[in-house]
Each structure stands twice: as structure tokens, then as C-alpha cells.
Amino acid sequence: MKAYQRKLDIRNGCVDLSHGSGGRAMAQLISGLFHEAFGNEWLARGNDQSAFDVGAGRMVMTTDGYVVSPLFFPGGNIGSLAVHGTVNDIAMAGAKPLYLSASFIIEEGFRFADLKTIADSMGEAARTAGVHIITGDTKVVERGKADGLFISTSAVGIVPDGLDLSAENARVGDRVLISGTLGDHGVAIMSKRQNLAFETEIVSDSAALNDLVARMVEAGGAGIRLMRDPTRGGLAATLNEIAQQSRLGFHLREEEIPVKPGVAAACELLGLDPLHVANEGKLVAIVAPEIAGAVLAAMRAHPLGRDAADIGEAVADDHHFVQMATSFGGGRIVDWLSGEQLPRIC
Amino acid sequence: MKYADEFRDKEIALGLAKTIRAETHPGRPYRFMEFCGGHTHAISRYGLEDMLPSNVRMIHGPGCPVCVLPAGRIDMAIRLAERSEVILCVYGDLMRVPGSQGASLLKAKARGADVRMVYSTIDAVRIAQENPEREIVFFAIGFETTTPPTAVMIRLVEKKQLSNFSVFCNHVLTPPAMQNILESPDIRSIGRVEIDGFVGPAHVSTIIGTAPYEFFAEEFGKPVVISGFEPLDMMQAILMLVRQVNENRHEVENQYSRAVTRDGNLRAKEEVSDIFELRDQFEWRGLGQVPYSGLKLKRAYAKYDAEVRFGMNELCVDDNPACECGAILRGVKKPVDCKLFGTVCTPETPMGSCMVSSEGACAAHWTYGRFRDHQQRRAS
């Protein structure tokens, strides 16, 4: 006999400890909310794992945790971010992302309506990126033990033949390309932080870059040495990492680096450097000089690379400095961000 | 960006650089101290040094309120924050400032002290309203520019009749510190720091005006140019100083005429003098005790004074003996002259105060300019 179970009250209900206990309530949450949002043949089979065929070639795997605050921000939410960020980590190997896992740690009292919005955005982000969320996990913790919701996603993808992108591959003379304006995500998040709320039209750039990457790989092939998405720590941290790993330096030209006026203004106000501010839908590519033009053209032809720019080059430098000619006419280092990104006080 | 790009124009900058080069006498040194950390930051961030002739040297002064805060005051704040009833509200820059033995507010927070980062005095007042059962203390710091907001906050707290709010006052004053740099006997004994003129901070002068520097310029025979913080402002101010030096003048000139007047902001000055009074002396990291250089709350406002309310004792802590912050803040030494610079002392693990705030001379040089040290070494 099938037990009667009240429908999930998505509009008014909220998560309680029973939704993480392994009982019917949990099964209902998973099937009624997550499967609904992610809908695919793997989840439909209801196993603790999902099987998929492995083709020839090399695979890549990555994992990432998402603890963004606030959970909803202009241009996305923690769910879309959890898909985009992990898809992008796979894409930075030049790889085609295939399957994702998603793990949710939910604080009791979290509203079903919000959880549904977040799960739906994950489903939509996955469909847009052409990937499937094929396995997952749900845990519920007591009130006060998590800030609403944490999500962890992992992904696997497949690398095209002949491609081996890695941070130690940059060579002197290589060009530095970025796919668009810097700092949009960080500023969008900060504009909604408690104590800091300010009005801006800036929305997060959160987006899956795998299609852009595929176009770039078509245009540049093995001439692409490496790609990175400049998330926390911004472009500055990314280029410093690459400089260390490839044992060289970079020379950038500030006037070539695209920054939206709203982002520049917010950074000015808060005493931040746009080069330190996080991005979630941008990439930096280090490419051989002879294919730089073709790759840049391919980037600009893609909706996510319209503002792509060639911002500088790799140079020989034993100290692995990232230097920049300022638009004002002087020179300076672009250093790692130290500590938290804190506004100056006067 | 409107109202900013106009003051960062490369062509005008190159024109000013050319004029400075043309008007400086090649054999003569021009040593100018930019007092304020905001100027230090701008010089480094825009690479201004690259645009000046080699005989024009900018000496970085002690005008970063975070940098000059002595370790003892940080220790006092940590002790306060460790009290269970207290919520300490601070500006972000203060979190990592080293107290004694590597202590900091950030570490105290990790151990359980309730330290909250705020972006304005209004945030602190809101926290006080939201937590009537707790004691809210605002860590007030800064030069003349940030003192009026503290005064306004106290007025607001008074109006709202909040009984759980007080201020740990660390406000300091610019002119006495500049005077101290020129008067201090140990500078004279070292005898190496020659200053030919000062770039004065415009933001401070939007409040106090230019008049307080007139005595200083006259008494010490040094020109002062009050300058804005955009790179073109600074280039123009440097040119104005070069001209004064060449013409043997020592006047107070106002480059930032778009916001600064001789008398400053009368309303703000009135609010400040209603609520604050001079301390007999206040300790500056690097300068030691400087007479009449700090403010405290007047007796009538003692109930808002955390030092009175919590019976806080003044703590004095010696800086690391190898740390050269003192000499660097006075312009006697450069960051690279310090053994700790870039070895054990970096922005991640600051030993001295100059490395903490991005406006500190060491942090600015480390973050933006250290590639020049290697270039110079190679060239020599």
C-alpha cells in the first residue's frame, strides 16, 4: 500500500531536519525539487551513482565549493554560479565538460521557494552549457550551522586530441588575451552586501565559457598555451600564478584592459583595484604570438568575447613580476592581492 | 569615468613632466615629502616616479593613520574586544595591523572576539540600535578628514539616546606631525633627511583649510602645496613646489582650489571643536610622543569615551628593534633600507606598520614599485 504523502509546499514551506534524514521527506525533496529542475535520464534511474560511457582520450576532473553571500545577486545566484564556475574550470583545459555532480548543505529553515529558484537556475545553466547534473547529495544542518545554503559541484570533461593546456606552458613572446571586461562579478556581489549596498547597474558576468573555449580551440589549436578563469584575486592573481609556474614575467598595457565605467567607479569609491576583483565569466588565455590575431577574432565573434582584448605579452623575468604601463604614462607592478579585499579608510 | 579620467590624462601628464624637467636645475636636488599616504599610494599606483627627473625625489611621509597607530593602541583595542559584552566596530584596514607579539584584531576575531568591519560610522550606530544588550565601541581613527564623521556620529547617538555606544578615539592631526618631522632632534642628529618642500593633503584641507600651514611655512622656511590625489594634481603640485624652490619662496599654495579654501569647512570645524579637545601628547608609531597631535572627547562627552567608560589603561609596546618604520615614516630611510622589507615583512605578514595599509610607504613600494629595485641593481 502506498503511504499518503502531502505535496511539497514550495510556495510557503521550508527545509527542516527531516529533509536530510534519509527518509521519505528527503526522497520527496530530491524527486520533487531537484530531479524536476535537473531532469535527465541518469537521475531518473534513482541510483546512488550514475554510469556513463568513457570515450577515448584524456579526461579532466575538477571540484569546487560555493559559499557566496548573498545567495542571490544581480545576474545570477549561487546555483547558476555553481554550474558556471565548475564548467569553466573544466573548459580552461580546453576540454568539453560532460557531467556534473552537485552536493547541497542546507540550513534548516531554508525556504523551498528559494531552493527551487536556485535548483531551477542550476538546471537552466546546465542545459545552456550542454552538461548534465547526473548525481548529487543533500544534507540538512541545524539552524546557525550554515549560512543558508552551500553547494559543492564536481565535473568531468574530455580534452580534444593534441591539446595539453597547463600553467607552466607560457613562453616569452606569448600574447595575453582576456575575453572581456574585468571585475563585474565582484562589484555586483559587493553592491548587495550588507553594510555596503550601493546602487549600480552592474550585473555579474557569471556564464559558462565552454562554447567560447571551443571556438578559440578551433581557431588556435595547440598554439593556445593555457587558459585560466580569473576568479578570486582577479586577473592580478591569475597572471602572477602563471608567471611563477611558467618562470617568466608579463608586461601589460593598462589602456588595453577593458573595465566597465560602473565597475571602475565602484572600485574608485571602495579603494579597490579592478585587477583584483573577481570574475565568473571571463578567461585569460596565453597564446603563441602567431595565432593571437586569429584567436582574438574568434573570441570577438562570440557573444561572451565581444570585448576581448590583447592586453600584453610574456617577457623574460627572473623575478616573475607582472608589470604594467599605466595609462597615465608610468610603470608599476600588478601584485597579488594581500589579505581580504578591504576598502581603504581615507 | 567622469570627473576622474580628466585628472589622469596622459598627454597633459607628459606636458607637465616636460615642464618640470625644463624648470628644474640639473645640479640641484628637489626633495619633497608627500605627507599623506593617499599621495604615496597615487605616486606608486600611477608610476609617477617614472615621469620625474632623477633629481626630484619624493619622500614618503607619515600620513597614513593606520601606519602611525602604535602597537599599544591595537593591544588596547584587542583587550576591549575580548570583553564578552563588547562589539568592536572597526574600519577594514585596522584588522591586520600588528599589535604586540603578532596579535591583531583579525586573530582576536578568529578566537571569538566580536569584531565587526564597518564601512561608515552610520553602520556602527545601526549595530548599536540592533544590539541594545551589548556595548558597541567604534574604533575611531584618522586625520582631520575622518574626525567630523565621528563628531556627527556622537551627535546622532546623543539624539537617539543610545546608552550602549562609545568611541575609542585615535584621531590625530596633520600640522603637529609635520612640524615634528622638521623639529625632531634625532632627525637633526642623523642629518640626512633634507626636505625642500611639502605636498599637503587636500582632503585634510577641505576641513581645516590652508591657513594652519601658514605658520609652518613661515617658521621653517619650507614651501607647502596643498594637492589633490589624482596623478595630474600631484604633477601640478610638484611643479608648483619646484617653482617655489627655484624662486626661494616658502608659501602655502593651493593646487586643489576646486574644493579647498583658506578657512576650510567652518561647520565641520565647529562640530569637531564642540566635541573634541587636544590631548597633551599622543604616541605615533615611528615618531614617538608628539605634543598636541591627538584628540580626545571633551569631559562633557566622557560617557561616549570608551577609554573612560571601560577604564582602559594606556599600553606601551616597543616595536621590533629591526623594524625601520620609524626612520621610514620620517623619510630618513627608504623601505629597501630595512632588513625586514620583503623578507619577513610583506603585506601578508606585516611586521611594521608601513607594510599594513596599502597607503604605507613599504606596502606601496612592495605592491607597485619593487621591480625598480632590481632594475637599479642591474643598472649599477
UniProtKB/TrEMBL annotation, chain A:
Gene3D superfamilies: PurM-like C-terminal domain (3.90.650.10), PurM-like, N-terminal domain (3.30.1330.10)
PurM-like N-terminal domain segment(s): 47-159
InterPro entries, per database record: HypE, PurM-like_C_dom, PurM-like_C_sf, PurM-like_N, PurM-like_N_sf
GO biological process assignments: protein maturation
Pfam families the UniProt entry points to: AIRS, AIRS_C
Sequence ranges assigned to domain PurM-like C-terminal in this UniProt record: 171-323
Family, similarity comment: Belongs to the HypE family.
Name of this chain's protein: Hydrogenase expression/formation protein HypE
Automatic annotation (TrEMBL), chain B:
Entries under InterPro entries matching the protein: Hyd_form_HypD, HypD_1, HypD_2_sf
GO biological process: protein maturation
Keywords for the protein's UniProt record, in alphabetical order: Iron, Metal-binding
GO molecular function, one term: carbon monoxide binding
Keyword Iron: yes
NCBIfam families: hypD
Gene3D superfamilies in the record: 6.10.20.100, HypD, alpha/beta domain 1
Protein name (Swiss-Prot/TrEMBL): Hydrogenase maturation factor
Naturally occurring in which organism (per UniProt): Bradyrhizobium frederickii
Family that this chain belongs to: Belongs to the HypD family.
Record bears the keyword Zinc: no
